[in-house]
Design brief:
alpha+beta, eight-stranded mixed β-sheet, L-malate dehydrogenase (quinone) activity, FAD/NAD-bd_sf, (S)-2-hydroxyglutarate dehydrogenase activity, MQO, EC 1.1.5.4
């Protein structure tokens, strides 16, 4: 007879870590088992070098606000990041997380654009956002002297006469080491009764007559098989999630497919450059580029060491994970999603053209792209590193650039598909999993959830006083006051 547990988490990333932590706080008596196919947690999308570490709050990311007069999406993303901040602050106070500096640091968020069209757009965006309570403190300038004070590397040897340029800056932005955060959350879970099985890959999921799930897995060392029954299963396995959700045969996964897009960054640890640039600077995406390919020059702090990253440069691999299979993109095909996937290919020719141009881009051309941001960049200071794989959702003939939770009608299984904004909004995404999958318990859990996330259920942007008080309180708790 298989062992029965309350919760199985598949995947050792920030999503599983966040959900597991919430459930451990809400139901400390529940037995939780997590499976990770690699030898450590946070080795794919949550790894610090596989993402830009931006605390996504729509402060600098233009793709969250394509219409300069419509702030709704930007406000929504910011609201979600505030919930993550509040959760982290609460977990620090409870001793679940270590000192804030081990995973988060104050890093201003900037947007820098060139050309009359983009300058006009950025100014309209600024005029719209400065009226929103959650974007209080945003600054705008077309003055090279001001922008030089904000980010000197952008302006050195840049001539104003070449073309107009402009920038916005929000001092309250952050850099987040999601790898460190994930490891700390799992350390707490395993220290409080949860079990983490590394080097174990879940192979199949089968619903049983009693409503539980039979989870069959195999140890990568010795190929030892095993199985466990779970009352609830969460699939937080990045691009691998679609495979496992398809294996579960829940009807809700019908029609879904994913398209993998990889990336590279240029990275430097030159102390002089790191000291000169303490910001995350985003710009406009190229025509056809997916939102996650917006060019940005980012200050990073990973394991206490500062660095700069520029990119990303799109790459292509049929794998859904960096450590996936070359057959991933083919083995996901089903009769119910083939038509949708073919339509995506036919209607996204700009994306195809963009990916081809990126694949043909030499190291020299990548450095030339960097020099458009940073005119004084020297080849010898920068190295190319491979970032993570992102599996973008395909559904209904459309390529979607967000995250989407797919859950069964009975709430016994849920999985996460997609990428951006991802890790930054993990708290909100996992709260939605709780609401969808534990509807019979969410009411009794609400008081505890309000302890962890004081503004749970509220919209901060609707109340300027509450927005100011809440963001100030979490900034102090996380020690990220600029």
């Amino acid at each position: 007879m298989s062992e029965t547990v309350d919760v199985v988490l598949i995947g050792g990333g920030i999503m599983s870590a966040t959900l597991g932590t919430l459930l451990k706080e809400l139901q400390p008596d529940w037995k939780i088992v997590a499976f990770e196919r690699q030898g450590e947690v946070a080795q794919e999308s949550s790894n610090a070098w596989n993402n830009a570490g931006t605390g996504h709050a729509a402060l600098c990311e233009l793709n969250y606000m394509p219409d300069a007069e419509d702030p709704s999406k930007a406000v929504q993303i910011n609201e979600q990041f505030q919930q993550s901040r509040q959760l982290w602050a609460s977990l620090i106070a409870k001793g679940v997380l270590d000192e804030p500096s081990t995973f988060i640091s104050a890093t201003p968020h900037m947007t820098f654009v060139r050309g009359e069209k983009d300058v006009a757009y950025l100014k309209r965006r600024y005029e719209t956002l400065k009226q929103q309570p959650l974007f209080a403190g945003i600054e705008y300038s077309e003055d090279s002297r001001v922008i030089n004070q904000w980010a000197p590397l952008l302006m050195q040897k840049r001539r104003k006469s070449d073309e107009p340029f402009a920038a916005t800056r929000t001092p309250s932005g952050t850099d987040v080491d999601f790898g460190a955060l994930t490891r700390q959350l799992f350390d707490h879970l395993t220290g409080n009764g949860a079990e983490l099985r590394l080097n174990h890959e879940v192979k199949t999921l089968k619903r049983q007559k009693d409503g539980t799930w039979l989870v069959k897995y195999r140890g990568k060392v010795g190929q030892t098989p095993g199985e466990v029954r779970a009352r609830f299963v969460f699939v937080g396995a990045g691009g691998w999630a679609i495979k496992l959700l398809q294996a579960s045969k829940i009807k809700e996964i019908r029609g879904y497919g994913v398209f993998p897009i990889g990336g590279q960054f240029l990275k430097t640890t030159n102390p002089e450059l790191v000291a000169a640039h303490r910001a995350k600077v985003y710009s406009q995406a190229a025509v056809g580029a997916p939102p996650m390919s917006v060019p940005h020059l980012d200050a990073r702090m990973v394991d206490g060491e500062g660095s700069l990253m520029f990119g990303p440069f799109a790459t292509f691999s049929p794998k859904f994970l960096k450590n996936g299979s070359l057959l991933d993109i083919v083995t996901q095909v089903r009769a119910h999603n083939l038509g949708s996937m073919l339509k995506v290919g036919a209607t996204n020719l700009d994306l195809v053209k963009y990916l081809v141009s990126e694949l043909l881009k030499s190291r020299k051309k990548k450095l030339d792209s960097l020099r458009e941001f940073m005119p004084t960049a020297k080849d010898e200071d920068w190295e190319l590193i491979q970032a993570g794989q992102r599996a973008q959702v395909m559904k209904g003939g459309k390529l979607q650039f967000g995250t989407e939770v797919v859950s069964s009608a009975d709430g016994s299984i849920a999985g996460l598909l997609g990428a951006s904004p991802g890790a930054s909004t993990a708290a909100t995404i996992m709260l939605n999993v709780l609401k969808n999958c534990f509807a019979d318990r969410i009411g009794e859990w609400e008081p505890k959830l309000r302890e962890l996330i004081p503004t749970y259920g509220d919209f901060l942007n609707d109340d300027p006083a509450k927005a100011e008080a809440s963001t100030a309180a979490t900034a102090e708790a996380l020690r990220i006051t600029a």
